[in-house]
Every structure is written in structure tokens, then in C-alpha cells.
Amino acid sequence: MRTAAWCAVLLLLAGVVAVGIWLCVVFQTAVTPVLLAILGTALLGPLYRRLLRMKVQKSLAAGLTVLAVLAFVGGATYIVVAALIETGDQIIASLRQAALDIADHLGAAGTSIDDLAKNAKALLEKFGGTAASGVISGISIVGQVAAMAVLALLLIFFFLRDSHRAADALRSFAPGSTGDMLEAMGRRAFEAVEGFMRGTTIVALVDAVLITIGLLILRVPGAVGLGALVFVTAYIPYLGAFLSGAIAVLVALADRGFVIALWVLGVVLAVQVIEGNVLQPAIQSRTVQMHPAVVMLAITAGASVAGILGMLLAVPVTAAAFGVIGELRGRYANQPG
To answer: Is residue 189 a contact partner of residue 41, using CB atoms and an 8 Å limit?
Structure first.
């Protein structure tokens, strides 16, 4: 009896997920600001609740939190963009030189690497043009991003201010006595996303600071820009660390030589060891823990559905799903068959 119930639940969840993914793909322009708003709400929800404890009125507290979102995202974007603009040319030149050096060592087998380095700009422009024509359908990228950002900020305001109504809204969709279960599932999913966002942001900041310090000590060019890249890519677990670490090693190889490149590799690996054995257990011990294989599959699926944005959103969405599954398991696992 219990096995049959679990099969029914899994089939129902699979159907809901399939329909949800299809709707997200069809209504991507509308869904993206909602998902971004949920992530922003999860990240700065503790600030909003602290303001409420300080007897700040709900609308004012939500408005101040939105301003905090603007300050945080705007400040982080400015730091990252400024660092990449300042050192971007140097990093790109170093990467191209590293590709040429590798091609020289590989001989004839490295010809394709050399060709790719020489034509990287043309390939990037061609890819960008194709992606833009398929995604925005003639609408300016800047305009679309600005519109989604404004909508996401407005949604964050309403999500925060009216969060107390979420339980009643979930109950209104639930038939009969399933309201309690649906509310618990929603709370567990949001707690998982909140824990992921808060933990990932702290880990990303610590990783970026440690790697930047290491690169500065080793006098690797573009250290601040590479550190900013580490912070941004940290929101794509495992894959982001690999990409940013590989770029740092290649830049060091091109400008500082093989020995310094090995030292940079050691710094990156040491930071990853600290992250995996100290930061992650300490910061994310109370959130949903996912196996690395599950994370990589989620990232791959997200990339196939929505490209880079899908890669960024895949893990928090998966964390929410694991939260729901954990709630269901806690409710039904101990029931007699």
C-alpha cells in the first residue's frame, strides 16, 4: 500500500514538473522576473523580518529592503564591471597568449586552438547575434533586461509585504484537508531556496576574497577582475568554480610562467578544499544537501532549457524540489503500510 502511494506521488510530481518546465519555456519572459524576485526575496528576507521586529511598518520595511536589493546588486555589478573593464583586455590577452603557447607545445595538433584564439571575437559575435535573434525577437537586450529588473523589484516588494498572505493563498488552492500539507511544502521549498541563496552568497564572497588575495600575492595580472569573476560564477556550483579557476591558471601561465601557474592552481584547490570542508558544512548545514551529481544534472538541464539563466536558476529550483520531497518523506515515511 505504501509503495503504491509513493508511486502515485512520484508520478504526480513528475507530471507537475513536466508541465511547470513547459510553462516556464513558453512564458520565459514573464517567468524569469518571478523567479528572480523569489531569489531576491529569499536572499534579503532576513533583513525584512529584522525591520519588522524593529516596529517598521510593512510597506516601508519592504521598500527599504528593495532599496537594499538595489544597493547590493548595483554595488556588486559596479565592482564586477569596473574590475572586468579595467583588467578585461589584459585577461583576454593573457588567455589568448596561453592558447597560443599551448598550441606551440602541441604542434600540429594545436592548430585548431590557435585558430579558435584568433577567431574568438568573430565566433562570440556570431553566437551572440544568433542567441539575441532567437531570444528577444527584435527587442533590445538592454530594454528587456531593464524591464525584467523593474518588474522583479516590484515583485520583491509585493512578495515581502504580502508574504503573510502566502499561506492563505496556498490553502485556497488546496482541496479539502490538504491545505496544511500544501502550506508545509511551500514553506519547506522557500526555506531551501533561502538557505541556498544566503549560503551561496557568503561562500562566493569568501572564495572571491581568498582567491583575490592569493592572486595579488602571486602578482597575477587582473587579480581583482578574476576575483570578481569567481564571485559571479560561484552561483553556478562546481562548474563555476572550475571555469573561473581554469581562467585564473591560464592567465598566470601566460604572464607569470609555469611555476606561478602551479601556485595559482594550488591556491584555487586550497580555497575549494576550505569551501567543501569548512564553509559549506558550517554555512549550509541547515539547508537541503544535494549530491554533486544531482547538482551537475540540474545545471545541465537548466542550460538546455534556458541557457546561462537556466544554469543560474537550476540549483535553487532543485533545492526547492528537494525541500518538497523532504517534507513529503517526513510526513509519509513513518506511516504504516
So the answer is: no
